[in-house]
Amino acid sequence: MNDQNAALIRTFYGAFGRRDTDAMERCYHPDATFGDPVFQDLEGRDRVMGMWRMLLGRNRDVGVTVGDVSARDHDGAAHWTARYTFGTTGREVVNEIDALFRFEDGLIVRHHDAFDFKHWSKMALGRPVGLFLGWTPMFRATIRGRALRSLEEFMAAG
Fold first, then answer.
1. Cross-referenced Gene3D superfamilies, in alphabetical order (predicted)?
2. Which candidate, 21, 14, 15, 35, places its Cα nearest to that of 97?
3. Alpha-carbon torsion 86, 29, 40, 112, what sign?
4. Strand ranges inside the chain, DSSP E
5. Spatial distance between the Cα atoms of 116 and 96, rounded to a whole number of angstroms
6. By 3-state DSSP, what share of the chain in percent is helix, strand and coil, each rounded to 5?
7. Which of 16, 126, 127, 133 has its CA 20 to 30 A from that of 74?
8. Is pLDDT above 90 for 67?
C-alpha cells in the first residue's frame, strides 16, 4: 500500500464531496486523462476539470461517498457512490462506480470510472427509455454525443 497515493484519492473525493473543484484540480496531473461510459476519453486536466465543473454546476445536490481505497506506487483503485438528481428528468440516481487510477509525479494522471450504463439509464431516464433502450449501442452513442456537446458548450462559455 502506498499511503501517499491512497491519501491523494481520498483528498480528491473529499474535495468532490465539498464541491471544491479547485482542490480536485490540484489532484490531477496537467496531462491527466479521464474516461467513463459517458465521457469515454477526455484528455488534459482542463477538459477533465471542465467535465467535473459542468457536472457539479448542473447538479446542486451531488453527494459522494468513497470506500475500498487502495493504492500502490503507480496505480490505485476506489469504489465510490454518487447520489444526485438527474437534471433532465428530475429522477434520483444512486450510481455505484469503480475507479482506477494511475499516478505520475505524485498526481493522478489517469482516472477511469466504470459503472453499469443500463442500470444508470434506468435510474436517470426511467421507463421505458432507460429500461428498454439503455443497453443499445445507438442509445449510448446518443447520450455520449449529447454529453460531449454539453461539455464543449460549457467550456466555450467559461
1. 3.10.450.50
2. 35
3. negative
4. 28-35, 42-43, 63-71, 75-86, 91-104, 107-114
5. 8
6. 45, 35, 20
7. 16
8. yes
- Using CA atoms, how far residue 68 sits from 36, 78, 80, in Å, is 19, 5, 8
Checking if the pLDDT of 136 tops 80, the result is no
Place of cell 482542490: 23
CA-based radius of gyration for the chain: 15
Rounded to whole angstroms, how far apart are CA atoms 134 and 86?
A: 15
Q: What residues are paired with 111 via a beta bridge?
A: 34, 101
The CA distance from 121 to 67, in Å, is 24
∠ Cα 115 16 124 (to 5°) = 40
| Cell matching residue 110 | 489517469
Q: Specify burial of residue 41 (Cβ count, 10 A radius: 0-12, 13-18, 19+).
A: exposed
Mean pLDDT, to the nearest integer, of 56-78?
A: 95
Instruction: With CA atoms as reference, report the closest residue to 110 among 43, 54, 55, 53.
Output: 43
**pLDDT, greater one: 98 or 87:** 98
